[in-house]
Design goal:
This protein has helices spanning 2-7, 20-27, 30-38, 41-54, 85-97, 101-107, 138-151, 154-173, 245-256, 260-266, 312-326, 331-343, 407-418; strands at 108-109, 131-132, 185-190, 199-205, 208-215, 218-228, 267-269, 305-306, 349-354, 362-367, 372-377, 393-398. By secondary structure, the protein is an alpha+beta fold. Strand 4 and strand 5 (208-215) form a beta hairpin. Residues 14-26 have a biased composition (Basic and acidic residues).
């Protein structure tokens, strides 16, 4: 109860409704708000940089600019790596059944379409491929949620749906319901839903972006962005929803279990911002996380300490952090992913930024050749806390070395088909 009360402290940071920004938000729909924000010099420059990154050929996140080859393996025909493909195909067909011809033209892209890479997590409605949930029928919305639910674990769908519900709650408390709501997201299907051939889907919007690729009974779900501002709903029909607290508690338990010498080496920066950060390591909007939108080719070195040097208890906590970060995957697919991670355990690193007492804001990253999980406490965007506080959270998952969006699996599938 005490922790929840502390988190509910977000209410002291709700901005007054008589400020110009608050009035603009209250009076705007998503199109009007985007036009206002894009006129700001910082946002305009940010978008320009996104376009530059988007136009780069895809390589994948690396530690030094070179992709490690032969690290992602396409399953053999008939091999079951846990993707609930039959259920996904059935749910996808239900989506198509409720899609008008016009929506169908917007909804479906080729499996290798470049739009995979144009997702963003801010509320700005800049990239408009797919169908907008708030502009779709109730039946289509329900069908889209059915596909998301069919693709994820029960815990994963609960968390994904929670991000969308918290977005609505944020819109209510800051009086921005037409910009921030449970349906301010776009949905896309890539390829033709099939139990054998590759296809996938994408949903993106404020504080929830997910890219799901499937081929046969194998799946890759990344990049994934899940966030919340605040991360607790303290009133209304969804009162009691709290997001990411399990990751927070596990991370603090891990860091507090270290001796002072290891804490010093793990904590790559003492403070959450400041002149000690190199330019690549901190961004005004992304803040500490480095795997966000359009960072598909970013060079991100390993930081901190190799987890293989930790005690068994501490290594188990790192595994738990990974599971909590990846638990949107269905049970068998998660087991396959953890087996892949275990094969590269000797090249897995953990780092920390910030404090590690109960009320401290912090950042951590778990990074290996086959996974990168980030967790970051942010300063306010719609709430007006200037410093990062634990009630605004961003989490990210990436698949380094070329397999975000399942791109490496798709390449191998096409190569295999071409050789037949």
């Amino acid at each position: 109860m005490e922790e929840s009360q502390q988190r509910a402290g977000f209410r002291e940071y709700i901005p007054p409704r008589d400020t110009q920004r608050s009035r603009n938000l209250a009076e705007s729909d998503t199109y009007q708000w985007t036009k206002l924000r894009c006129a700001e010099p910082f946002v305009a420059g940010w978008i320009k940089h996104w376009e530059e990154l988007y136009n780069e050929p895809y390589k994948g996140i690396t530690t030094d600019g070179s992709v490690i080859s032969n690290i992602h393996r396409l399953a053999e025909e008939g091999e079951d790596l846990g993707a609930p493909t039959a259920e996904m195909v059935k749910a996808a067909q239900n989506v198509l059944d409720f899609t008008s011809p016009e929506q169908g033209r917007a909804l479906i892209r080729p499996v290798d379409a470049p739009e995979w890479r144009s997702w963003i997590n801010p509320e700005l409605y800049i990239y408009r491929h797919g169908v907008r949930l708030e502009e779709s029928t109730e039946e289509l919305n329900t069908a889209i949620h059915g596909l998301i639910q069919a693709s994820l674990s029960p815990a994963g769908y609960e968390k994904a749906n929670g991000c969308m519900k918290v977005n609505r709650f944020l819109g209510e408390i800051v009086d921005g319901r037409r910009v921030l709501n449970e349906r301010s997201y776009n949905f896309v299907i890539f390829g033709t839903p099939s139990e054998k051939e590759p296809w996938g889907w994408q949903l993106f919007g404020h504080h929830f972006c997910m890219n799901c690729f499937v081929v046969g009974k194998q799946m890759t779900i990344s990049p994934v962005f899940m966030g919340a501002e605040p991360n607790i709903i303290d009133e209304g029909p969804d009162k009691g929803i709290e997001l990411f607290t399990d990751q927070e508690k596990t991370a603090l338990k891990l860091m507090q279990s270290m001796d002072p010498a290891m804490q010093k080496d793990l904590r790559i920066y003492t403070h959450l911002n400041g002149p000690e950060f190199p330019s690549w390591r901190y961004h005004r909007a992304d803040q500490r996380h480095v795997g966000g939108a359009f960072q598909d080719n970013k060079v991100i070195p390993y930081e901190g300490i190799n987890v293989a040097t930790f005690s068994e208890f501490q290594q188990d906590l790192v595994r738990k952090l990974l599971i909590l970060g990846l638990n949107y995957l269905p049970e068998k697919a998660l087991a396959a992913k953890m087996e892949e991670i275990s094969a590269h355990w000797a090249q897995t690193y953990f780092c920390w930024i910030g404090g590690f007492q109960g009320a401290d804001a912090f950042y951590y990253k778990v990074h290996s050749p086959v996974v990168m999980v980030e967790f970051d406490h942010h300063s306010g965007v719609f709430l007006n806390n200037k410093d990062p506080l634990p009630f605004h959270i961003h989490t990210l998952v990436r698949t380094p070395n070329g397999n975000d969006y399942g791109k490496e699996l798709l390449r191998q599938y096409q190569e295999r088909q071409g050789s037949k």
